Amino acid sequence: MHIGSIVARVGLITVLVVIGGFKFTGAEAHAVQRFVTHSPFFAWMDGAFGIQGTSNVFGVYEIITGLLIAARLFSARLSALGSAMAIIIFVGTLSFLITTPDPFTPGGPGQFLLKDITLLGASIWTLGEAMSAADQSETAANHP
């Protein structure tokens, strides 16, 4: 495995677990609120769970996602599931560039969200790699 692929996977896992953990703080919940309230996909969550509850749901999802990707050490299929979940996360966060007012004004959220393009790419790569490994493992198991 190339060093770049290791760094991409570990970086993706780290971002998901650490930022997922931050979602349980009031400051991060407040930061999430400006995105959620303008999103046609997530605005309902504020009414259902409150802003801290919504942030907590995101945090749990992100941490589970990171742990599933890390499961690649022993299960390519679990890692593929986590990678698919990560794709959902980053497509969702990138949608905020469209739904949040003035994303590219100075101090706006656009700069913060642009990194998610790279994280989406890493998620797509880890999904493909894990699915390929799972297919190879299944083929080897069926043809001893």
List the helices and strands and how they pair.
Layout: H1 3-22, H2 26-36, H3 43-70, H4 76-99, H5 110-142
Helix pairs in contact: 1-3, 2-3, 3-4, 4-5
Strand fraction equals under 5%
Main sheet overview: none
The SSE order reads HHHHH
- The portion of residues assigned to helices is over 70%
Radius of gyration: 17 Å
Can you tell me the residue ranges where pLDDT is under 50 for at least 5 consecutive residues? none
Estimate nothing, just give the exact number of structural domains: 1
Provide a count of the helices: 5
Sheet/helix structural class: mainly alpha
Q: State the distance separating the first and last CA atoms.
A: 25 Å
Q: What's the total count of β strands?
A: 0
- What is the overall pLDDT average? 93
Which key features would you list for this structure?
144 residues, mainly alpha, 5 helices, 0% strand
Task: Kindly describe this structure.
The protein is mainly α and 144 residues long. 81% of the residues lie in helices and 0% in strands. The chain has one domain. The mean pLDDT is 93.
Describe the structure in brief.
This protein has 144 residues and is mainly α. The protein has one domain (3-142). It has helices at residues 3-22, 26-36, 43-70, 76-99, 110-142.
